[in-house]
Give the backbone structure.
Amino acid sequence: MRITAKKIIEHKNQGKKITALTAYDYSSAKYFDKAGVDIILVGDSLAQVALGYSSTTQVTLDEMLIFTQAVARGAKNALVVADMPFMSYQISIEEAVKNAGKFIQAGAQAVKIEGSNTHILEAIKHLTQNGIPVMGHLGFTPQYINTIGGHFVSAKDSQKTFEILNMAQSLERAGVFSIVLEMVPQESSKFITQRLNVPTIGIGAGKYCDGQILVSDDILGKYDEFCPKFARQYSSLKDIIFNVARAYCNDVENGNFPSIAESFTLDTNEAQKLENYSQD
Ligand code: KIV
């Protein structure tokens, strides 16, 4: 049965850790879902890992919608959350609702929005009132990279931790069902997590969050241009992909592919006719 946003909050109350991973295609979503991942995020990190852009600010709404449709077809049980891309919710409340609605129609069950300024709080209220569950995102917020100026750890002292807690509590009051905390010291995320009713999902935020999320290309070892300190690499898919492509090229070049078993054949009589014809 499909995990709902409400169920994710229940996990926190029951002390059950929430598992989340990003996915961008049908097959990955299918196997993450089978493995029992609670939340599959169609993250705008696909800008870098699937589309080769240099920043998440470059991915468009239309691109995000295609990936969301693919993931939604693969995930039968997990809660599918779609990341609303840069400038798809900032311009007006009306645009935020209209664009979030497109993600729900594409098959997601919730959307994620970065930040907590007054416009964003208002947008979250409208989305939730219109039946669209929202996941918040605080700490390092990649869509603000051009104003932040780099990949920095947030909440690095007690004052900044209080500020993030205040933001998180505003998001909670606006109606989010969970909050991603990105690149936050573990003592700070523990302090914040203990003071919220909705679960925190950490990425580079230590073990005290209610759940964890990672970019799937990082845990699979597929994207090699940047691997953050907080990502645990369980495989080296990039080496597997390289070795498979190399072995295939060798087989083709040496005439070892395709074999007879990998080919279609005529029956002997018909083959003989072609042989005779060639000899005429
Ligand atoms: O886009 C993404 O993958 C994300 C995660 C890092 C939480 O927002």
The chain has twelve helices and eight strands. The first helix runs from residue 5 to 13.
